[in-house]
Amino acid sequence: MVVDDDTGIVAALTIMLEDAGYDVASTSNGHTVSEISEYVPDVILLDIWMGDVDGRDVCKQLKSQASTKSIPIIMVSARAEAEKSALSADADAFIAKPFEMDELLAMVAKYTERRYLN
Amino acid sequence: MNKKISKKIFPIVGIGASAGGLEAFRELLTALPTETGMAFVLVQHLDPTHDSILTTLLAKKTSMPVTEVTDSIHVVPNHVYVIPPNKDLTIRGGILKLSTRSADGKLHLPINRFFCSLAEEHENNAIGIILSGTASDGTLGLKAIKAAGGITFAQNEKTAKYSGMPNAAIASGSVDFVLSPSDIAKELVRISRAPYLRQPETPTDQETEPENEKGLQKLFSLIQNDKGVDFGHYKRATINRRIKRRMLLHKLNTLDEYVQYVKDNKSEIDNLFQEFLIDVTRFFREPTSHQFLTEKVLPRMLEKKSTKEPIRIWVPGCATGEEVYSLAMTLTEFLESKSLHIPIQIFGTDLSQTGLNTARRGFYYQSDLLDVSTLRINRFFIKTEAGYQIIKSVRDMCIFAPHNVFKDPPFSKIDLISCCNLLIYMDSVLQDNIFHSFHYALRPTGYLLLGKSEGVGMTSDLFSQIDKKYKLFMRKDTSSRISVESVSRTPLKDKSSKNDSKIREDIPMKFDLQKVTDSILLSHHTPSSVVIDSDLEIIQFRGSTEKYLSHTDGKASFNLMKMAKGDLWFELRTAIAKAKKSGKPYRKEDIRINRNDAVGSVTVEVDPLNSPEGDAYYLILFESTKPQTISSSDSGTIEDIKAYHNAKFEQELTLAREDMRSITEEQEATNEELQSANEEILSNNEELQSINEELETSTEELESTNEELTTVNEELQNRNAELTEARNYSNAIIRTVQTPLLILDGDLRVRTANRAFYQTFQVDEEGTEGSSVFDLGKGQWSIPSLGTLLMEILPKDNTFDNYEVEHTFPTIGHKIMLLNARKFISDGQNILLAIEDITERKSLDSQKSEFIGIASHELKTPITTMKAFAQILQKRLSKSGNKSDAYILSNINIQADRLTTLINDLLNVSKIEAGRLMLEKKKFDLDALIRKIVVDFQYTSDSHIVTKEGEIKELVYGDEGRIEQLLSNLITNAIKYSPDADKVIVRISRDKQNHIIRVQDFGFGIAKKDQVRIFEQFYRTSDKDKNNVSGFGLGLYISSEIIKRHGGKIWVESTRGKGSTFTFTLPLKKGDN
């Protein structure tokens, strides 16, 4: 699942992941993420600064509710220094924008695999 | 002889200058016409080590030929001669002589040297000019020229760049004209036309021309009336030369004109008087004669003296006192070497009051002290700003007084008279007079020291020569008479004293044996007698005395003289006086007396009776001798009777004559005594006058000290005013400056605050001044950290700079302030506290950072999108085998990466500037990091092989991410700037304190001038054409900031065309090894 307030990014990531063979859901509204109910994504790519929504709050919330607790969350931000705060908000990984496609795909692959291993 | 005359018929002008002289020379030469008939010799102080271009410079200013002096050059008129550097110049026989300046470390004074030789050689044809310069070279030279009858000039203070040298000359009183250089030139032209200088000195000058003589006598009498000094017996040559000088100065052509001028101008008498008295004197003029004094004369002198008696020395014609002080120094040294404490009195006398004033002041310029050893200068002088002051102990030995040695009574009991080079100005009449005076003044074994060319002449009966070379004489013990002339300033005028009794005889008190024998023979008689006391009052009567004594009319008296009958009183008196004098009985026989119309005779005997109490009494015996009658029965003839009477009269006559003689002798002796008493009184009077004079001088000195104090006081007042002004000045600055300022005292109470402070913090003056800084504005300043800082300043004597304080004030709200403080002393310890309100600046700064943060975030988002799409496309295309399109897309990707790097750089710089570049330091494996980077680059770079050399075994403390950024940057640069090379080497090593990492490339290299600045913000190397690579120039700036924050250093070594090596160090942490 891709969560970013910038629709361009959402579009790019969606295509990138779909090209790699993933099913991708997306939203540009951070508020709605916690209400995931229809299906549980294998990994969430979550932007930090989404206008009035802080991705880290979303992350914390997801990690605190039982239904979404086990979903790996990769936080994405244009500010490299945000890595620390992302990890302390219980994110599983962090990648800075702009990123290399291979790097991102490798990271996504790693977490989806782990989940299946679990 | 011809040659001698020819060299003298044109004037030679000596011109001396030092600093600022060139300008003055130029001005002087420019104003001079070519045909003055004079020769000009320039003596300039020059740098001894450099060639002089003075000659060339001056040649442009005059059409006269200008020559630098070479040795033995013959002086001709209308020429300018210039001294070469490092030489001494003298003139002899019309030829300029050069000599190498002596390297004895003494002061080099070429101007004095030349002027003195000029004065000696050319006398009244010598002209001396002192132009701009420092110190006092030339003063002595001008003195010599003036004394020789030459003319002297000095540049005036207004035009002289440095007025020290001319002013010293002016102060010495040896300068005739004080003018600007161009006016000096005018004056020289005038002098060149004056007949005085043109005529050679003819032998007639030595003698008196009748018409001249008349004028001279008039002048002499004018001076004598005014000054009481008769120059009639001064040597004519000197007198003539000096009168001519005066005439020249006043532009007069004949002596008659000058006499008239003197009559009309009273002040000219003073000038002429001073002119006659010019004397050139120096300290230790004859050093060998001073040595002779200490070695030979003084020891002999002291042999005959008790230590209580002062040594008395007289220096007549002392001029400005140098000889007096020299003697004082010599004597002091001598007595010290013998450990003797004998008081010294040195009388320095002269006619010239101006000279005496200088002497009394005891102040001399450096140029005056040339012949004084450094040892003596240190010992006897106190250095002042302008020159040297003789010390008080020496000054106190010396008494200076005006005194005319020919006329005023001399001093007395003098041990040594030093009279050098005074007599040469006098003719023999005066000299003779003086020697008599000296003879009187000296003690029996006193010494007389004369100048080298002087002698005692005709009065050799008064002095015997002790030493031929040093002209030392000793007083012969003959009687002397001094002459005190009619114009004596003492009230005791005695015109005749000179004339009387040149021949003196000693008066031995003869003892009359015969008379004594007679008196003893007659002693068996018992004649009538009286006893009288020393007042001649009769105390006792014995026997019948009525024949000889009777009472007188009127008041009763027992006085023998009154009671003696007839002429007896006269004989009695003589007899008593004789007995009194001799202390022995005295007998006077056959005194004829008229007794009752009959003529009788009496014999009187006076016997002194000395009582045990010491009172003198006299026994007077009267013995009647019967008149011898010649009886008719005697066979005597009338002739016999006549013969008898004749014999009798003759006997009486003889007695009377003897009486007369003894009375005369007595009177002469009394006269003699009176005379010498008188002389003594005169001498004492003279001394008293001198001392009085000294006292007056002391009073004057006190007055001048008072004057000085007034001046000092005035100066202090001026200083005060200046201080006030300075205070107002700084107050104005403090008031106006926009930064709030507080001045606190030691207890941190506010002494003053400026307007900016009151405005910024909205407090008033009343509530601020005097109260503690922490109580200001209801305690709003009580910031604990500020308190600590302030309290530490005074005890530790330190300052603090740019200390930031954040505080919320009740009245003005939240403020961020930058505080600077330092201690200063003014009426106790104080702290100046400058408070800068940086609240606004701070908020602007944070706004800026925030903006850059947001901007970079916003910029990165589209790049991310763009890059992502490009990569997607690239991947799709490479899968489908469309290699060429994939390549295009990979370029888009690379450019997007570069854009990202630039944005990151900007972001980092803004963080560095804001001080927000955070480092996350921890221990990490640098060796592994470098290995990883090297491998990464191996993947990305096709052109270069990056190799690692060396190894770090331990962990390093630092921010791994930043170090990686830095290394990547350096390696990227290394590849970028060496397009023609194929390798980059990363070397690791360490020393005691640091890990050392080097990145070496083999590319363009960096120019020397760029090597230092390359680490500056936005700096890019100057030759852009060669390495056409883009960038902001921020990479190395950020790198160096990162290294700085790690406590390391970064630098570059580079050779153009060979490559560069960037080196950085990381300090080893303790425990790392």
What do these coordinates show?
The complex is a heterodimer of chains A (118) and B (1073). Chain A has 118 residues and is of the alpha/beta class. Chain A has helices at residues 7-19, 55-64, 83-88, 101-117, and strands at 2-3, 26-27, 44-47, 49-50, 53-54, 73-77, 93-96. The mean pLDDT of chain A is 84. With 1073 residues, chain B is an alpha/beta fold. Chain B is built from 32 helices and 37 strands. The longest helix of chain B is centred in the middle third of the chain and has 99 residues, at 638-736. Chain B starts with a helix and ends in a 6-residue tail after the last strand. Residues 1-8, 200-208 and 483-510 of chain B have low confidence and may be disordered. Classes of the chains: A alpha/beta (118), B alpha/beta (1073). The interface between A and B is medium-sized, with 19 and 21 residues.
What structural category arises from helix and sheet content of chain B? alpha/beta
The parts of chain A where pLDDT drops under 50 for at least 5 residues are none
Characterize the quaternary organization of these chains.
heterodimer
Q: Summarize the biggest pleated sheet of chain B.
A: 7 strands, parallel
Q: What class do helices, strands and sheet pairing of chain A give?
A: alpha/beta
End-to-end CA span of chain B: 103 Å
- Biggest β-sheet: strands ordered side by side in the sheet of chain A: 2-1-3-6-7
Report the sheet-strand fraction of chain B: 15-25%
> Biggest sheet of chain A, open or closed, and with what strands and sense?
5 strands, parallel
